[in-house]
Amino acid sequence: MHITNLRKVGGSVMLAVPPALLDLLHLKPGASVGLAVDGDRLVVEASPKPHYTMAELLAASDYTAAAISDDREWLDAAAVGKELM
C-alpha cells in the first residue's frame, strides 16, 4: 500500500499519486479519473476517454441545424483530389 498526503490547494484538496501507481494504471497528468466512496474507502478508478463508432456519432448528429458559413463553403467547394462522395 502506498501512503500519500492530502494537500489544500485554493478551495480544493489534492491527492498526490506516486508515479509507480500512475504507471501501473497507464495514467498521465491530466487524465480523467472517477471517484467513489466504498464504506470508509476512497476509490479512484481510471476513467478512459470514450471511443465512439461512426454509427454512434452519426446517430447523435443534429442534421436539422443550419450549417455555418465555413461548413457551407467547404461543402460547396469543388474536389481538389481523389475525394469520393
Would you summarize the structure shown here?
This protein has 85 residues and is α+β, with helices and mostly antiparallel strands. The protein has helices at 19-24, 54-59, 69-76; strands at 6-9, 12-15, 33-38, 41-46.
Q: Can you characterise this structure?
A:
The chain is of the alpha+beta class. The protein has a domain at 6-46: Pemi-like Protein 1, Chain: D, CATH 2.10.260. Helix content is 24%, strand content 24%. It contains three helices and four strands, in the order E-E-H-E-E-H-H. It has helices spanning 19-24, 54-59, 69-76, and strands spanning 6-9, 12-15, 33-38, 41-46. Strands 1-2 form a two-stranded antiparallel sheet. A two-stranded antiparallel sheet has the order 3-4. Strand 1 and strand 2 form a beta hairpin. The longest helix is centred in the C-terminal third of the chain and has 8 residues, at 69-76. It is elongated. It starts with 5 loop residues before the first strand and ends in a 9-residue tail after the last helix. This is Antitoxin. GO terms for molecular function: DNA binding. InterPro entries: SpoVT-AbrB_dom (IPR007159), SpoVT-AbrB_sf (IPR037914). Residues 7-52 form the SpoVT-AbrB domain.
Task: Report the portion of residues in β strands.
Answer: 15-25%
Question: How would you classify the helix and strand content by structural class?
Answer: alpha+beta
The percentage helix is 10-25%
Total of helices: 3
Query: Any low-confidence stretches, pLDDT <50, length ≥5?
Result: none
- What is the architecture of one domain at the second tier of CATH? Ribbon
Query: Mean pLDDT score, rounded?
Result: 88
Anisotropy-based shape:
elongated
- CATH top level of one domain is Mainly Beta
In CATH, the topology of one domain is named Pemi-like Protein 1, Chain: D
Listing every helix as H and every strand as E from the N terminus to the C terminus, the arrangement reads EEHEEHH
Radius of gyration computed on alpha carbons: 23 Å
What is the count of β-strands?
A: 4
What's the arrangement of strands in the largest beta sheet?
A: 1-2
First CA to last CA: what distance? 57 Å
Mind summarizing the main beta sheet? 2 strands, antiparallel
